[in-house]
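Run: sequence + pyridoxal-5'-phosphate -> complex structure.
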Amino acid sequence: MQLLALRAQFPALEQTLAGYPLCYLDTAATSQKPQAVLDAMASFYRDDNANVHRAAHQLSARATANYEQVRDKVQAFINAAKRQEIIFTHGTTEAINMVAWGLTEQIDHTSTILIDSAAHHANIVPWQQLAKRTGAKIIAIPLDANGRIDQPAYQALLSNGASIVAMNHVSNVMGTVNPVKEMIAQAKAAGAITLVDGAQAIAHMPVNVNTLGCDFYVFSGHKMYGPTGVGILYGQFEQLDKLSPLLTGGEMIDTVSFEMTTFNTLPNRLEAGTPAIADVIGLGAAIDFIAALPQAATKKREAELLKYLQQQLQQLGQVTLYGAHQDNLGAVAFNLADEHHQDVGILLDQQGVAIRCGHHCAMPLMQSLGIKGCCRASIGIYTSVEDIDRFVEALASVKAMLFD
Ligand SMILES: Cc1ncc(COP(=O)(O)O)c(C=O)c1O
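>> structure
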């Protein structure tokens, strides 16, 4: 599919802001949604709306079939061994909280939790809460001078013993890609449970949890052209089955009496209450949409575009890039001289250019980089060379405005 035809499927991209055509470079925060996703959700509410798993009537049976079909799609999409290994959550944050809560009984004051220094707060705070409950120790896996995991330091930490290793697949700030397959194998050899935060990877690379060998892999629908309100917790069956449920109530039970409750089997045991049915349907449409794209060509185009973005920023001068490598995915982090990142963002916005500025929910990473915050431009399947050119031109004019 040609880029113009692809872009035409994302209605939100067709607007102007303050007289400028929208230049959307904030896909890492949330991607725009194709018409197919909007249609699938509208059609669910219009034609199939009923609660799932509950009623004996046909509408509910149809809603349940559509909902459960998405579980199969997700299973195939990430190559999970069993459909019960796919748990619908409300997003990455909820999924990590479910794991961190669920492991409480398996962790104690002798346990160590290793966390990627570039992790998003969603992959830090739930572990801190787990450590508070259990007395476990948290250790940050340091980064090297290039913003990548310091592998020798990681090996040394593992050799001291680790119960859990929580890592990024791709950094939401810099776009750096962790060698997760190797890191997982090393963590497993040290006896640790592994969780990979795939929120920024899932839209940019094929993910095969079977090959990766991780215990848990989590991501959000809204960063992969699907709706907000839905995410995935993948876990190896034996690991998921051992998690204590964070949420309890309807649907996750087998029997209830005032004396005691017994829990349902997976996946229901970890899906209490009415799920985000329409959002799950939207996620299914997003997976279909991604799966229909020519995979190799799309990946190549995105990689070239990111390289072009890095080069153009470097050529502009007085721009500091953080952890910019050729094999990064999706995002570029930068500052313009010592201008405040927020000022840069606001001035770009006045020209219709949408980027993200701040600490990007990664304050420990900001500390590692020795900065308070930065700007981030991020791309998706619909981003064009023209978008990058417009952004860099706008940044040049911001630079002239601030420096002259
Ligand atoms: C790497 C990473 N992890 C976790 C999250 C949290 O995702 P959500 O807000 O969808 O739960 C994000 C969102 O920006 C992210 O980029």
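>> summary
The chain has a mean pLDDT of 97. The pocket of pyridoxal-5'-phosphate is lined by residues 91-93, 120, 122-123, 168, 172, 197, 199-200, 220 (CB under 6 Å).
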